[in-house]
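Thread: Newbie trying to understand structure tokens

Hi all, I'm a second-year student working on a class project, and my supervisor (Dr. K.) asked me to get a predicted structure for one chain before our next meeting. I've only ever worked with sequences, so writing a 3D structure as a token string is new to me. If someone could post the tokens and maybe explain what I'm looking at, I'd be very grateful. Here's the chain:
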Amino acid sequence: MKTLIAAVSLVLISASLVHSRATTGDQDLELIRKGTAQAYGHWVEATKRKDAQAVVELYAEDAIVLPPGGEPITGRQTILAFYKKYYSDRWQLLNEEFKSTSLVLRGDLAVETAEYTGEIEQGEKGKTLFKGKNLVVWKQQKDGSWKLFRDMWSSSTP
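---
Reply by user tm_fold:
Sure, no problem. This is what the structure looks like when written as tokens:
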């Protein structure tokens, strides 16, 4: 009887610990989800201003950007140069929204997929709607903040 009580107690304690860990994980994911939503908002506002310096602040020092149709871009300074060139084109972001479609937390890395839609002004060409998807890996920094570690996107518009 004592063995049965001990076994039941052990199962209940184990189940309690598993539930506690799952709840903590859900809370961590929710905090990260809120943080990534804020980062996307920061990116949109900085892109509307074509502020490459503000955008590159979202990236970790050892980040890699994998743009569509281009070579990998490694490190914040090279990423800064990429965005300066990207923003020099004749277009203006009018709006853009990101919708997270998945988020997985593994230690100090958070892997996220998202869909995005928006509209740009292209001078004589007028306004153009766009949509696409991205895959990003966020990395937790020593100060507890989350920065873009890997960033890849592609258009869903032909």
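A couple of things are worth pointing out once you decode it. The mean pLDDT is 85. The chain has three helices and six strands. Feel free to ask follow-ups in this thread.
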